[in-house]
Each structure stands twice: as structure tokens, then as C-alpha cells.
Amino acid sequence: MNKISACILLFLLLSCKEISFKEPQPRGRSALSEIPKELRGKYLLIEANNNGTDTLIVTGNGYQVANDSTKGVLGDSLVLKKYKGYYFFNDNQNPEWLLRVVKREANGDLVYMFMDSHEQSFEEFIVSLNKEIRIDSFEVNDEKLYQIDPSPKQLVSLISKGYFRKTVQLKKLQ
Fold this sequence. Notes:
The protein is mostly beta strands. It has one domain. 14% of the residues lie in helices and 41% in strands. The strands form 2 sheets. A 9-stranded antiparallel sheet has the order 5-4-3-2-12-9-8-7-6. Strands 1-11-10 form a 3-stranded mixed sheet, with no helix packed on it. Strand 8 and strand 9 form a beta hairpin.
């Protein structure tokens, strides 16, 4: 699996600037105790260049990349919630939560999204996002963190307005 897919899929974007959250999203919604059956199975990771690079295996309690030792297990540091047809994977990177959004398509494929500055600079992205929602910033270990605290309705609105970029297509394998 190439480094870009690993960075995106494995929630290890510590070196990348991104917007984080104060608590698991959507706020006020209950966490799921297991991954729903409709999401379980094997998926081919398809990146923007349409090359399949690896297989993601999703089970009732987490996920694992087939050719990699990386895995995630639901618990205190990986929280899954569902709202308005979206699945929200929240990764605790104390003092912040990183968010990944998954949408299941009718054919069983998954669309994987996270908040991204797209083709604009991070600073331009912050200015644009700040028109939608208040952004708090603070420093931890000489690193500036940016956090938002949307209502569930605001969160879905940010998805529909394109603030969450579709980064990887996960093609369901039979």
C-alpha cells in the first residue's frame, strides 16, 4: 500500500494539518458497539488514480489492511457513530478527535471522506470554513491545532457543501 493511502486510511495524519473536533461526532449521538453488518466485508482500496492498491477487511469490531499490520478496533480511542446515512469514525488523538466519514453506496461500495483543504491552501480553507462555523485554535507541543464543534445538522451541512473530500473509493469484493 502506498504512503498516501496509508496516511488517509490509517488516521495517521499527525504531520498533516487538519481540522479536528472536541468530542466524537456527531455530538450527542450514541456510539455503536459494533460495525454494522452492511459495512462488513472485504474492500479493494481505489485511489484517485483508479489503481487498486490493497484490501481492507472490515469486521464487527474493527478493520485491518490485508497486507499491512495496521488495524483499528472500536473502543475508547476509535468511536463509530451513525447519522443521516453516514458513518462517522472518530479517532482519539488526545487532545483532539480526528474524523473520517463513510457513506455506503447502493452497490455496497464505500466512499471515504475527511475534511480537507482540497486544492486551496490550508489558510484559505480555514477562512472559508470560518464563514460556516466558528474555529477555535490553540497550541499543543508547539503545534497549532484547529477545532470545530458543530451540531449534527451543521456537520451534515459541511459534508454536503464539500468540506469533506472523497479521498478513497472502497470497492466491495464478493
